[in-house]
Structure formats: C-alpha cells, structure tokens
Write a structure and sequence with these properties.
11 strands; alpha/beta; seven-stranded mixed β-sheet; binds S-adenosylmethionine; four-stranded antiparallel β-sheet; single chain; globular; RCMT; 17 helices; Rossmann fold; 386 residues; Alpha-Beta Plaits
C-alpha cells in the first residue's frame, strides 16, 4: 500500500471512531499516541485531511461517498498542490489555485451556502452565505505586538522567511501553524490573540486608577490587553476553574504583569457579592462562557456535532452570571459583555436582558466580523450602570 492510500485509510478510521464528544485535537492526540508508528509528517497530513473533512459540515452529505468527500474537502480547502491529491486526482491537483467558486464549478458541485447549518440563529449583520464559505479557509494565527515591538518582530519574521500581513493596530497576521515562540524568543514582546479579540479592546476604555474585575478571565488574554492599554489600574481576575487561573498566573509572569489579585469564583452563586471582600468595581469585564460558534473555523468538528439545544443553556448561564456580577458594579461604572458567539440568543438577546431586567444602558457595541479576514467573529457591548 502506498503512503497516500495509508493516509486515506487512517483518515477514514479516525472519522469512524470520532463521535464529537471530545474536542477533535484531543481525540487526534490520543489516537496518534496509540499509533506511534506514524511520524510527525504523517500526523500532520492526516490531521489536515480530517480537519478539512469537517470544514464541509453536513453540506451535500447525502450524495457523496466518504473517500470522495475527503478528497473534495482537500481540493476545496487547500490552495497549493498536494502529493496525495496528485496521486488520487491529478486533474484536480492542477486546479488547486482556482477560486472556491471556480473549484465548485469545475467539480459541478452546488454552492457551499449551508456549510454552517444554523443560519437562522445568526446575529444581525452576519452574512450567512459568506460565513458559511469562510469555513473552507483556515483562519490566520494572529499576534498582538506589545511595548512598541512591532518593527523588531517584523525583522525577526523576515529573517525567518515567514509571510505576514499587518491588518491594523498592533496586530500581525501569520500563516496558521507558525511556530511563533521559536522565532520571537522574548515572550513579553507579543501575545497570541485573535484579531477580533484584540479589537474588543476598543470598548474597554480603562481610566487610570480605576478598579476592574475580569470575572471570567480564563488564562487572562483580555486582562493582558486591558493592562497593556492602561497599566495603572487595579485588577481582580476570577474564573470557576482553578487550573486555568494557574495558567493565567504563568502567562502574567511571562507578560511582566505583577499587580493583580486572583480568585476562584463560581458566578452562578447568587451570593458572589458577599464572598468578595471588596465588592464594588468601577468596571466589570464579562467575557462570558459561550458556544464559541464564532471560533469554529478553528474547531470545525462543531459544524458537524453541535446541537442547537446548547444555545439556550449558554444563554441562561450568561443571564445568570450577568445578573450576579452587575450587583458589584458601582453606579456610573461600565460593564463590557463579550462572547465569541455568532448566535443572536447569546448576543442581542442577552443585551436586551441586561438593559431591560438589569437596568443598564447600552452605550456601544455589536458584532465584530472576522469571517471576511480569516479571523474569529465576536460580539462585544459596553453598558453603563445609571
Ligand atoms: C470565554 S472564556 C474567557 C476567555 C478569557 N477572558 C480570555 O480572554 O482568554 C469564559 C470563561 O468563563 C469561565 N466560566 C464558565 N462558567 C463559569 C462560572 N459559573 N463562574 C465563573 N467562570 C465561569 C470558564 O471557565 C472560561 O474560562
């Protein structure tokens, strides 16, 4: 059997075994660990076939054999010729540089408008067809340059022969999979952060000496952004997961951030204001737990396995957390609500709840589109407590 036939067979084996209960990258890690005969090149190429397969979601599923679908996915998602495609479909391999539209025409296949199967759930202003088509492209890896190091970083990238783009601000777009830490060895020069996530910073507007609570901090991406915009703030970070706050502490150390407090807190607890020793903040950043549907370009298995019933679950969690934390916001203070979701129920409907039920005033915000620039799509809204 040739290497390419073996890759195709292994891809089918993975697709047979995977059921969506774990994130795909965890499943693949375990699968390759159990099959150590595969080298890193084999793992990379098989992973590419599996990921591309899921990029098609349920699109045109009924009419395609699995082998065909794997090869069609490879052809539609990749822009450079590929030895595996050359082996199985040399005529297609000669056409990999065509646009998506021309590739579909070449194969006499219908448009990919329904790759994303939840179009009727989308937030205002998201173009469902463009969003669907965006899944066939791998998103970029974005970094945010810190301490005016953008020029120094660019020099290192050029020296290493890495292509890059400058989409604005201090963001740098890199090809997905770039080994950034091997190129930029001083970790304090940059943060890995998606472009749309970087742009949520425009809503933070931190005043010097103000007291902030990043109440769903995870490993602290938004908090580092906040501190980079205004280092002179007081900051409490919290999350329900102890392990993620340990990651945050490591990441803050690498980023040179020292002055902050960290606390493990479950924000579904109605008494959360009573647990905090100082429970009145000038500003609260609520980067809420959500479906993550705006980031599925990086986890396309969700196109296949996500169940819409989960949206309601996230909405009720978001409302519950918002109503508990707003009690800790000083009058005149701002709440910044963020999701990486494209669903109206997690975005506009939660905004309406915060306005109507919690009495805050919406100042600015909305969807931050990423699908037209190989980035995540997010939602951010800034409120003031009157
Ligand atoms: C979208 S992530 C935050 C991302 C982070 N702000 C960043 O920029 O990297 C949401 C976080 O909410 C946390 N979370 C989920 N349920 C929670 C709860 N009941 N109380 C507190 N935090 C919770 C999760 O552990 C997760 O880390």
């Amino acid at each position: 059997m040739t290497r390419w036939e073996n890759y195709l067979l292994t891809t089918k084996k993975i697709l047979d075994q995977y059921n969506g209960s774990l994130p795909l990258h965890h499943f693949l890690k375990t699968f390759f660990k159990a099959n150590p005969q595969m080298g890193s090149r084999d793992r990379k190429q098989i992973s590419q076939l599996v990921y591309n397969y899921f990029r098609l979601g349920h699109w045109n599923n009924a009419t395609m054999q699995r082998d065909d679908r794997i090869l069609i996915a490879l052809f539609l998602c990749e822009i450079a010729p590929n030895p595996l495609l050359e082996f199985f479909r040399p005529a297609w391999n000669a056409q990999t540089a065509l646009s998506l539209k021309d590739k579909l025409q070449f194969l006499e296949l219908p448009a990919v408008d329904d790759v994303f199967p939840f179009a009727k759930e989308l937030s205002d202003g998201i173009d469902a067809a463009a969003y669907s088509a965006s899944f066939l492209q791998q998103p970029h890896l974005y970094i945010r340059a810190r301490y005016n190091k953008q020029q120094d970083i660019i020099q290192l990238l050029e020296k290493a022969g890495i292509s890059y783009a400058l989409p604005g601000g201090t963001a740098i777009a890199l090809p997905n999979g770039t080994k950034v830490d091997a190129i930029i060895t001083d970790k304090s020069w940059y943060e890995i952060q998606d472009l749309s996530s970087q742009e949520t910073g425009q809503l933070l507007q931190p005043a010097a000496k103000s007291y902030w609570w990043d109440c769903c901090a995870a490993s602290g991406g938004k908090s580092i952004l906040l501190k980079d915009i205004q280092p002179n703030i007081e900051l409490l970070v919290s999350d329900v997961r102890t392990s993620i706050l340990e990651n945050l502490q490591r990441r803050f150390k690498e980023a040179g951030i020292k002055n902050y407090h960290a606390k493990v807190l479950d924000l579904t607890d109605e008494q959360v204001d009573a647990i905090l020793p100082r429970n009145q903040f000038d500003n609260i950043l609520l980067d809420a737990p959500c479906s993550g549907s705006g980031t599925w370009g990086r986890t396309p298995e969700n196109l296949y396995y996500f169940e819409t019933t989960k949206i309601e679950h996230y909405q009720s969690l978001q409302k519950r957390i918002a109503s508990n934390v707003v009690k800790c916001l000083k009058p005149g203070g701002a709440l910044v609500y963020i999701t990486c979701s494209v669903f109206r129920k997690e975005n506009e409907e939660v905004v309406a709840y915060i306005e109507k039920e919690l009495g805050l005033q919406l100042q600015q915000g909305g969807v931050i589109k990423g699908y037209d620039r190989s980035a995540d799509t997010m939602f951010a809204a800034r409120f003031v407590k009157v």
